[in-house]
Design brief:
Layout: H1 3-24, E1 26-29, E2 48-52, E3 55-58, H2 59-66, H3 69-75, E4 81-83, H4 86-98, H5 103-110, H6 120-129, E5 139-141, E6 146-148, E7 151-153, E8 158-160, E9 175-180, E10 183-188, H7 191-194, E11 195-197, E12 204-206, H8 215-220, E13 246-247, E14 256-257, H9 260-272, E15 278-279, E16 290-291, H10 313-327, H11 338-341, H12 346-354
Antiparallel strand pairs: 1-9, 2-3, 2-4, 5-8, 6-7, 9-10, 11-12, 13-14, 15-16
Helix pairs in contact: 2-3
Length: 369
């Protein structure tokens, strides 16, 4: 067999292998800075040996408890005590930077964060143009024209996203990218809002709020901003439907849905009004964003303004995370509570959220089966 034929056969096999990998492969990545790349690396050894529903147990107290049978029972695995060791702390760091809790499905397939004004290609080009210098406010070019109220964002216009890239890094802090058999998804982690790049050194400050993150504008530039209508003052949801109304169901027997274009336009205006560095964390149908808080917890736990985070392990840190990464990162999970929260039929609620979904498999088609 001559070398040209061998080359062609080898190239063909390689092409088949690459195609199979692209269609069947799955992988994901989120950056996690080394401790050497932090501006605020650990400043002192951890003094806490156990956490018992928010109460810190020192190593000296743990020694005293382990000296008695009742104390050993209190600290035993499987109970309310959580051992604080280096492995546990490292798991926490990985979760902080890399765990999305599954929100990539909602953000990509329902809200369409990658199918609106900003696309993965333009984001990748913006990061590449940094040349390793890093930034506290990634400027991304619009991939297409998009209107938000009276403001029209033109193709090629640079959008101040507030996304952070550390010096020497090639990825955005707090974003995890998923490749799933030909489908690209984007998820967010705790670090997107609660870590920031220091403008002077380009290093990461763990726990610092991202004070210029333009979360509201990023949502407004998504394909289906309506998926977040319950976090905004969108009276159009309560308005009478259009002359040719859509219903929850293939016939007119289900509840009528509000006009899709009106709800989408109103939601975009409302979420775009959030100031940089803020986020509307309450699903109360009112536009009331608050400043992104810090997550510094060396000497105090993350109590919220209402005090609800004071309950549970680590003085409520679990409660805080569950609120952000459940109610705020996937609004579909509020459907069952829609009658009590919004005075709305669950089917109507889901119809509004899913009617404009970016991915076909998640989209609700009122006129379909």
């Amino acid at each position: 067999m001559g070398w040209p034929r061998r080359f062609l056969i080898g190239a063909g096999v390689a092409a088949v292998a690459i195609g199979a990998t692209a269609s069947l492969g799955r992988f994901s990545y989120a950056p996690m800075p080394d401790r050497a790349d932090l501006l605020n690396a650990d400043r002192y050894p951890i003094q806490t040996a156990f956490d018992i529903l928010g109460r810190r147990v020192s190593r000296a107290e743990a020694d005293r408890l382990n000296a008695t049978e009742s104390g050993r029972t209190e600290l035993a695995p499987g109970g309310t005590a959580v051992a604080i060791d280096p492995a546990m702390v490292e798991r926490g760091r990985r979760a902080f930077y890399q765990e999305t809790f599954g929100n990539e499905v909602f953000l990509t397939d329902v809200m369409g964060m990658l199918d609106g004004g900003l696309t993965p290609t333009e984001v990748a080009l913006a990061v590449a143009k940094l040349g390793g210098q890093g930034t506290t406010n990634l400027q991304v070019a619009m991939a297409r024209d998009m209107r938000i109220g009276e403001r029209v964002y033109r193709k090629g216009e640079l959008v101040p996203t507030g996304l952070d890239v550390p010096k020497g890094g090639a990825f955005i802090i707090g974003i995890r990218t998923f490749y799933d058999r030909g489908h690209l998804r984007m998820g967010i982690t705790c670090a997107l809002c609660h870590a920031a790049v220091d403008p002077g050194t380009g290093k990461v400050v763990e726990g610092a709020p991202n004070v210029d993150l333009n979360a509201g504008l990023l949502m407004a530039l998504a394909k289906n901003s309506s998926a977040y209508f319950m976090h905004a003052s969108v009276t159009e949801v309560d308005a009478r439907p259009s002359a040719d109304p859509q219903h929850t169901g293939s016939t007119s027997t289900g509840p009528a849905l509000p006009d899709a274009a009106a709800v989408e336009a109103a939601t975009k205006v409302q979420v775009a009004s959030w100031p940089p560095g803020s986020f509307d964390s309450s699903a109360d149908r009112v536009t009331n964003p608050t400043s992104i808080p810090s997550s510094f917890s060396a000497y105090g736990e993350p109590y919220s303004w209402s005090g609800r985070e004071a309950i549970g392990p680590f003085a409520g840190l679990s409660s805080l995370n569950n609120n952000v990464h459940a109610a705020n990162s996937d609004t579909t999970q509020l459907a069952a509570a829609a009658p009590w929260l919004f005075g709305m039929d669950p089917e109507t609620y889901l119809g509004i959220v899913l009617r404009g979904a970016a991915t076909d498999a998640f989209r609700y088609e009122p006129d379909g089966g």
